[in-house]
Amino acid sequence: MYKELIAKAIEAREKAYVPYSNFLVGAAVKTKEGKIFTGCNIESASFTPTICAERTALSKAISEGHKEIEAIAVVGSFEEYTFPCGVCRQFIVEFGKDIKIIVAKNTDEYKIYQISDLLPHSFGPEDIDNV
Ligand code: THU
Fold this sequence. Notes:
The protein is of the alpha+beta class. It is built from four helices and five strands, in the order αββαβαββα. Strand 1 and strand 2 (36-40) form a beta hairpin. Tetrahydrodeoxyuridine (THU) binds at residues 18, 21, 23, 25, 41, 43, 50, 52-54, 74, 76, 82, 84-85, 88.
């Protein structure tokens, strides 16, 4: 069901800029209307500005006006599942507790979670009165 999305994440993974960790990650965001936005991790010599693949892809979707997110596929290592880091989980939950997270080793081996399972009891937009 999410094979195409995973394939796009694998493709994006090749674009990773990772001179420090050499750990390539690709992500692909699928909007509820079926559009796909991809991203890779981009590292920085001063480390802190490093951005993960998930946030790169999601930022592309949001900045192009697509806030209705259905799913995000993530591919790091081909041997083990790579889960979104804590910062990415918080970034993702902003756009919906029901967003599906597909962690994949390849197009045949993957697991599907819901972001609310990966970040339970989250703090989100609903917790800020004036939103
Ligand atoms: N990274 C991601 O892009 N996504 C994840 O889900 C985990 C970590 C990146 C950040 C950094 O460039 C490298 O992987 C090693 O932490």
